[in-house]
Amino acid sequence: MTESELRARVKAAAGDRAALDGMRKSFDAISKRQKENAPRIPDLKERKDRLRKAKESSVGNEDLFKQALATLQENGFRVVVAKTAEAAVKRIRQELEGYDLVVKSKSNVTKEIHLADALKQAGIEVIETDLGDRIIQLEGCEAAHPTGPACHLTRKQISKLFTKHFGRPVSEDPMELTRAMREEIASYLSRAKVGITGANAITALEGAVVVVHNEGNASKCAMLPDKHIVVTTPEKVVQTLDDAVNVVKLQTYLSTGKITSAYVNVITGPSYTADIEKQVYKGMHGPREVMVIFVDDGRMSAADKEPQYCIGCGMCLLECPVYNVVGPIFGVPGHMGGQGVYLEGSRGRLEEARDSGLYLCTSCGSCIEACPASVGTKKGLIAVREKARQQGLSPSAEHAAIAASVKNYDNPWQMPRKRKARWAEGLGLKGKGEVLYFAGCSTSLLFPESAQRVVRLMRASGGEPAYLGQEEKCC
């Protein structure tokens, strides 16, 4: 993608006020619900600490991954490890030979590998059974949130979309919108023989697949008669079911604001019965076979495993100033925002990282503060930028000029260092104190009157700010 193409893409995204306003409204609703329910999770900090430790001990742990493969196979799963996205898609297509319809539930991994498009090209109809994903599928746009993919679309937009899709008027009433799509999805579920789901966690000790959902659709996809295909990634493996429950509890609260989701499915293999002479017969209810496909695609070999600690809760998106302005174009399919760009870069996909917003990140660090696993996205993106620069994937000429100015003048505005502290002349600010005012380059050089007002406000409130003057460095 050229610089002009990226610039045009960003400008168009930032100008789509309707989509961004809808997304922000949805994010505000999540934050409000979190605040309301926060007292019901008094051990939230301890759970986050536990999550971080669990990820540190499991992500990239080859012995634990091998244990998970073994226990899954012992429980009757067919297990496949696909080294690349292409290999995963090819294997799934092979599994679907003879079928012309497949239904699937929400799965960020399938978005990452563009599974639906690949199956469509192979003549297989793919129906998203999650309401949000089905809306996105019909609209042909990117998801805006991991668990609320269509949160950027208003009910008016969805009404117009459904009216066109069904060929009849569908009102803006959420109940009617839900009912119309529920009936259509139900008809596909009744005809399909194979279902595809993702997995929120895989347990090594028990050999269990844990799937969390609110609509009940994942359960139905997992119970179709012929085959259930679970598409997941190695970093979803945790040691025990207790660890998995902690993952899904945090994911549910942070992504929706609710304490728990409507459904938590723990699948330990194909169904079976031993009610006739205590002989085990598989496939009593549900699919005759269940298979798990792990999509590696550079994860196991990545030197930096940090972005794989992500649990897909979307908290970073709620706090990211860049995502707030440009939306889903910041990130990659299935992995939104800076974390998605970081994941791409950590796997050596530097061009993809650049095109998905590598140089859009402001390095503010808000994502780290919000992340339950404290994923170091800021530090990671800076490292990816350095690698990209070394390979000639430099930012624009404007960026180069700014970098040179910071290096030569200690500010991005190509102004002499001595002008930085001019705004403070005559204010009698000391170099040390209880409170330090960091004015910054832009305020000091472009809006000096704002810095002076801040000092007056601080003094009016009883504080005396200290100021570093020309010793203040560019942030």
Description:
It is a single chain. 39% of the residues are buried. Helix 2 packs across helix 12 (241-256). The chain is elongated, with a radius of gyration of 25 Å. Helix content is 47%, strand content 13%. The chain has helices at residues 3-15, 17-37, 44-58, 62-74, 85-95, 108-112, 115-121, 131-139, 155-166, 174-191, 217-222, 241-256, 315-319, 321-326, 337-346, 350-355, 366-370, 377-390, 397-409, 441-446, 448-460, and strands at residues 78-82, 101-104, 125-128, 194-197, 201-203, 208-213, 227-232, 237-238, 263-267, 272-276, 279-282, 289-295, 331-332, 335-336, 435-436, 465-466. The model has no long low-confidence stretch (mean pLDDT 93). It is α/β, with parallel strands linked by helices. The strands form five sheets. A six-stranded parallel beta sheet has the order 1-12-7-4-2-3, with helices on both faces. The protein has a four-stranded mixed beta sheet with strand order 8-5-6-9, sandwiched between helices. It folds into three domains: 42-137 and 177-295, NagB/RpiA/CoA transferase-like (Rossmann fold, 3-Layer(aba) Sandwich), CATH 3.40.50; 306-395, Alpha-helical ferredoxin (Fumarate Reductase Iron-sulfur Protein, Chain B, domain 2, Orthogonal Bundle), CATH 1.10.1060.10; 410-471, no CATH class. It is built from 21 helices and 16 strands.
